[in-house]
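In response to the reviewer comment on reproducibility (Comment 2.3), we provide here a single inverse folding case reported in full, input and output, so that an independent group could reproduce the run without further information from us. The structure tokens appear first.
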């Protein structure tokens, strides 16, 4: 599966984790939301700004969708822990959704997720905070920023 969610069959993840641990390794699951770089009809982003990478212009996420996405990062981190992963890497890089909220050229919002640098960082900060809360203090959480 290309996503981790409570309603998915997660046996493949368990097999990978077990194999890595058998060899003495550690394994982290990369968590990301593609935002306007996703490949389906209903793409979303911080704002409805066209990109050359995708012919479909993303729809601006509602405030409610922003909060749901923050919760989803936390839920995914918790699931990763339950599956035996040693940690997660939350992708705030390469133009994915969390980066789209940081970028002034993409984020034209006027609510709590737009405008000031603090507000543009809110989605990423809250996603990490929610992941920490749901996965626990001793679970590795890396935030990738590039």
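Designed residues, in position order:
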């Amino acid at each position: 599966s290309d996503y981790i969610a409570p309603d998915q069959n997660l046996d493949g993840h368990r097999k990978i984790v077990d194999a890595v641990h058998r060899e003495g390794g550690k394994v982290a699951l990369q968590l990301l939301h593609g935002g306007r770089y996703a490949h389906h009809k209903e793409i979303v982003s911080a704002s409805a700004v066209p990109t050359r990478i995708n012919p479909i212009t993303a729809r601006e996420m509602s405030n409610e969708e922003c909060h749901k996405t923050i919760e989803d990062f936390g839920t995914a981190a918790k699931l990763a822990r339950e599956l035996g992963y040693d940690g997660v890497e939350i992708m705030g890089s390469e133009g994915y959704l969390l980066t789209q909220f940081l970028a002034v050229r993409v984020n034209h919002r006027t609510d709590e997720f737009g405008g000031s640098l603090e507000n543009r960082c809110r989605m990423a900060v809250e996603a990490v905070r929610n992941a920490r809360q749901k996965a626990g203090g001793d679970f590795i959480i890396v935030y990738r920023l590039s």
